[in-house]
Amino acid sequence: MATFAGTPTLNDQRGDMRHRDNSMIRSETYSRPAQLATEDVPKPALSSIISVHDFEDVARQSFSEKAFAFYSSAATDLVSHNADLMCQRKLLLRPKVLRNVKDVTTKRSILGSDSSAPFFFSPAAMATLAHEEGELAVARACGNEGIIQMVSSNASYPLADIVHAGKPGQPFFLQLYVNSDRSKTEDLLLSAEKLGIKAILLTVDAPVPGKREADERIAAGNVSAAISGAVATNDKRGGGLGRGMGKYIDSTLCWEDLAWIKRVSGLPLVLKGIQTASDARKAVKFGAEGILLSNHGGRSLDTTQPAMMTLLELHKCAPEVFAHLEVYVDGGFTRGTDILKAIALGATAVGIGRPWLYALTYGQEGVEHLCDILKDELIISMKLSGITDVDEAHPGMVNTAGLEPLVRDGEDHPWIRWQPKARL
Ligand SMILES: Cc1cc2nc3c(=O)[nH]c(=O)nc-3n(C[C@H](O)[C@H](O)[C@H](O)COP(=O)(O)O)c2cc1C
């Protein structure tokens, strides 16, 4: 076990960390098709669910094996996914006592849209695998809870249906994968603007899908995404839904294309998947209004660093970016304390991914319950830390020493001077 005094590593804090996923070579595929949401499976009463982890346990039992593999899986050896979770535990809170903490507010403005708490739902594909009402149920829950839903380009329902399921004026962001047929992306952007979408969240860390073996090992079944029109199929590499549905993504996309997306949509642009301080600087230069620091929940390039480390890297190497755009983080956020630490370290808001998919096994009510759990944990954490408003959270509240030796302080390697002949 690492000690807090010793040189930290990210993967040694819990004995049960998986060094690869639990999937194994099997010749058969499953009889329960991936498309089937699992209304029929008995579940514990929602009132007995008191943490994000409880939702995951129920989802593991109640989803089809394919759905759970798709949602829970991460790339190759799960290093980044485990690191996301570990990272939160390396950051320690430093509470102040004897303050009047009776009344607390968790409200935040996220790119000008009101949110009842400093978290939002990160985009995730194919919510009907969890519940037949999928993203519609999430939209209703977000409307009731005052939370922003980031709708995936690979959502199960059409964008208009999702927006109309919400309340009038309810804020939504649209996550974008640019289609190799760019006219399709232009059509989507124009419809997003007409539907009152508040911002475009362009995913930049997945020009190709990551290799998620648990997902690959189970046949894809008949799954298609409504917004992108993508259909997943099986081939010699496996049955990965993520890979199958990502085939339309334009891997030629580059910085110069951002102006086109901004011009066509007329909407603020957030880049999702920024992982270095130098790319954060570029995001400012190319006119992004926000960046979501993310390693895609460990699902894209394995062994990338967690967003919280990138957040620290930004403070160290490119502190000026915080003055120019909003900074969000996601990956491995399961507790109110995790959210509080990110806000204290300068994030405007935190993205929640897998937990909302797991909560969706209970439909709209489950997603509302998840919001309540996270808000409740955040409020308790704020009160126990001695603050009453999220705007009061500041870096001094967090002991970051457990991560500091791992945070890079520049673009170049600190001491290797060798350079390749060609360098971008
Ligand atoms: C099942 C699943 C599907 C996802 N689909 C998308 C997607 O369509 N677009 C995208 O940008 N990110 C996608 N993500 C990544 C999430 O937006 C987010 O970055 C990640 O889930 C955060 O990590 P967490 O699950 O540990 O909270 C997906 C994640 C999961 C788990």
From TrEMBL:
Record region (Disordered): 1-21
Keyword Heme: yes
Top-rank taxon, per record: Eukaryota
GO MF term list: FMN binding; L-lactate dehydrogenase (cytochrome) activity; metal ion binding
Cofactor: FMN; heme b
TM spans (from-to): none
Record bears the keyword Flavoprotein: yes
Cited Pfam families: FMN_dh (PF01070)
Active site: 296
Binding annotation for FMN: 123-125, 152, 175, 203, 272, 294, 353-354
Domain FMN hydroxy acid dehydrogenase, first and last residues per copy: 44-403
Catalytic activity from the UniProt record: (S)-lactate + 2 Fe(III)-[cytochrome c] = 2 Fe(II)-[cytochrome c] + pyruvate + 2 H(+)
Family per record: In the C-terminal section; belongs to the FMN-dependent alpha-hydroxy acid dehydrogenase family.
Known partners and oligomeric status: Homotetramer.
Protein name, entry field: L-lactate dehydrogenase (cytochrome)
Species whose genome carries this gene: Hortaea werneckii EXF-2000
Source organism phylogeny: Eukaryota, Fungi, Dikarya, Ascomycota, Pezizomycotina
